Amino acid sequence: MPKPIVSIVKAGENVVLAVRKAVSLAGGLDGIVNSESKVLIKPNIASRDKSGCGKITDARVTQAITKMVLEKKPKSVIIGEGSAVGYDFPDLQDTMKALEESGTREVATKLGVPLVDLNTDRHREVEVPNPLVMKSVKIAQTVLESDVIISVPVMKTHIRSAVTLSVKNMKGVMPGAEKKKTHRLGLELAIADLNSIVRPHFAVVDGLMGMEGLWEYPDDCVPMGLVGAGRDPIAVDSVFAQIMGMESKEIMHLVYCQEKGLGKCDPGRIEVAGVPISEVRRPFHTAFAVMRKRYPGLIIQSEKACTGCTGEIISPLIYIREAKQVEKLKGLTVIIGEAPEQWEGEKVVAIGKCAQRLKDRLPFVPGCPPAVDAITEKICEVCNIDVQLVFQKQEELHRTKYGKSLH
Ligand code: SF4
């Protein structure tokens, strides 16, 4: 059996050329896209951010691969995404706003390709073959009607699944409630179950700007200048995890996908084309390592928390840090996700609907996910921080250095 090929290409100035080279080195689209194909291009636009910030797929990469697909004259091409929990409020933080802000809408308009919000699409319950943890899952109709899926993730670490690349990117095909369900059931097992239904047929990784640690912009941005591609998304993710300094056997959702026969993640069973991994390897910092360094003495208990609360807790921490009040966070425990039986410390805040069992016992912020301002207020109250000072800093940040990349 031939080994799956994964390409790594240094992009330089010409992203289009780099994507073309990466796709070609990985075997091209022949035999995958033909005149009968209904193709779904699935970038990772989980939140409202700008291209190039490292949190979302750069629209230039989406444009380059979409153009290559169109050259095959398929029956149809759609760009689809369903942004993350917390970024799925109609007209406020929804997918369409995220697609617009990222520049993806402009790309779709230019290429004459429809954009679909997979969160508001019709959804159908599908049984998972040989489930590990999720017997059935609701999936957007547009995805089920596509016969070729091309995943176009950005290169990032992830607080729950170590990395988020082309197979984790498929979470966007589920509506919000299903996304949350995967965290309750066990995210890494659920990702493997999901991919047994919607395993991408091809992956193109935007490794131009990576994101590590807590995804704080711009502190956690990692300029990598890479793109990569492959027909086996598990192998693609394995290679890019290795570039980020991890071993593929540590990435449990890839191991589960391999066990399910969805692809290969063992390095010895993958062929790398283009630049060798050793030449571009740059270990990425994990969320927990950055948290310990940047917020010493702060504990986040986050059993089974989803992207909603995990993402929303970061902004108040940034504002408090920028207001030079980090010292006062020492000894604070923040509980998100499933309410634990025990916690450490005397200063404790519980956040989000999943932890609401604690609402009469601890300072609590309701919501699913809760509003950033409400979290900021509660943390400031518990830690005796001047909340007005923090809000003032928040205003300044939005006007200046962070622009709209911070929410
Ligand atoms: S409360 Fe928070 S962790 Fe729980 S489902 Fe909602 S956003 Fe996710």
3D shape:
globular
CATH class of the largest domain: Alpha Beta
Label the CATH architecture of the largest domain.
3-Layer(aba) Sandwich
Quick check: average pLDDT?
A: 93
Radius of gyration equals 21 Å
Head-to-tail CA distance between termini: 47 Å
Helix/strand structural class: alpha/beta
The molecules bound to the chains, other than polymers, are: iron/sulfur cluster
Largest sheet: 10 strands, mixed
* Helix segment tally: 15
By CATH, the superfamily of the largest domain comes out as: LarA, N-terminal domain
Low-pLDDT sequence parts: 401-407
β-strand percent reads 15-25%
Task: Let me know the number of strands.
Answer: 16
Helix residue percentage: 25-40%
| Oligomeric state of shown chains | single chain
Features:
2 domains, 33% helix, 20% strand, globular, 407 residues, disordered C terminus, Rossmann fold, 15 helices, 4-stranded parallel sheet, 10-stranded mixed sheet, binds iron/sulfur cluster, alpha/beta
Description:
By secondary structure, the chain is α/β, with parallel strands linked by helices. The protein has 2 domains: 5-280, 3-Layer(aba) Sandwich (Rossmann fold); 295-405. Helix content is 33%, strand content 20%. It has 15 helices and 16 strands. Strands 1, 2, 3, 4, 7, 8, 9, 10, 11 and 12 form a 10-stranded mixed sheet that branches. A 4-stranded parallel sheet has the order 13-14-15-16, covered by helices on one side. A two-stranded antiparallel sheet has the order 5-6. Strand 2, helix 2 (59-70) and strand 3 form a beta-alpha-beta unit. Helix 1 (15-25) crosses helix 2 (59-70). The model is unreliable at 401-407 (pLDDT under 50). Residues 85-86, 180, 305-306, 308-309, 336-337, 352-354, 368-369 line the site of iron/sulfur cluster.
